[in-house]
Structures are given as structure tokens and as C-alpha cells.
């Protein structure tokens, strides 16, 4: 589960909502139900259940998951200086051994996805959900997104309570 400094600000999982989803269904309040569902995080690793199982089984972090499922190292996102010299070497291999050897080499040793690292443009960052923006900000600042044990707090939907009270007073 994400640390409380993020969970207090952003709606992450349905545990923060308590019984609100059930109440919305029982009262046929489809607008509130849809609003709450749309605000939940789409990232499955943010949920409490996934992280608690990972901690209890000793599967924490990308490397542990790669070892458990026998996966290769991830493809590098950005090129390093040594990758540019590899491109020149591939030209020699093309002339000597042909195109099939280049294809085989690229299957075994994936080339980087981008030749140069660009930071995310502000326009793109602004289009992301707030929780994803916060995670990226932490990643760019070199901070880890920490997981903590579950502690229930308010659901953050005081506005919906005020709306219900106003509707009740209007009736």
C-alpha cells in the first residue's frame, strides 16, 4: 500500500471509500458510484492486497520478480555512450554476416528504446492523473514510493455528504 503522505491526498483504492460504493449502489446513486470508481488508481500495484502478498512472500522490487518468473533484464529505456559504438559494429556485422545475424543479435540483445533521454513535457505531465503525476515527481527527485501497512482514515468525500444533506434539507 502506498505511504500515508500520498494516500491522504489521493484516492488510491476502494478501502479508502469504506462502504460508500455499496451505499451508492443501494440508493441507485449512479453518479456518485461512477465518480468514485473513476477516481480510483488504475495501477494494480497500488492496491493493498498486491503489496501485502509481495511482502509476505519476499517478492519486493523488480529484481525479485524477475528472478521468480525467470525473466530477462529489461530493455534499456535510453541509450548510453557504449550503445552508439555498438551501432558502428553492427554495420561491420551486416557486411560480413548479413541481415539475419543482425536480427538475431537484436532479438538476444534488445537495443535501447530511445537514443536520447527527454524529460516529460509539462503538457504531457498535466494530462496524467494526479496520482501518476505525484509518482513521477517522486521518481524524478530520486525518492522511492514507499508502502506502509493499512491504516484506515477518512474517505475524503465530505463534499458528497454535504450534497446529500442539502438534498435532504431541500426535500
Fold blueprint:
Elements: H1 4-7, H2 20-26, H3 30-39, H4 48-56, H5 62-68, H6 81-97, H7 99-108, H8 122-127, H9 130-140, H10 158-170
Task: Characterize the structure shown.
This protein is mainly alpha-helical. Among the domains are: 1-46, no CATH class; 70-117, no CATH class. Helices cover 55% and strands 0% of the residues. The chain contains 10 helices and no strands. The chain has helices at 4-7, 20-26, 30-39, 48-56, 62-68, 81-97, 99-108, 122-127, 130-140, 158-170. Helix 2 (20-26) runs antiparallel to helix 3 and helix 6 (81-97) packs antiparallel against helix 7. It comes from Anaerobiospirillum thomasii. InterPro entries: VC2046_fam (IPR021879).
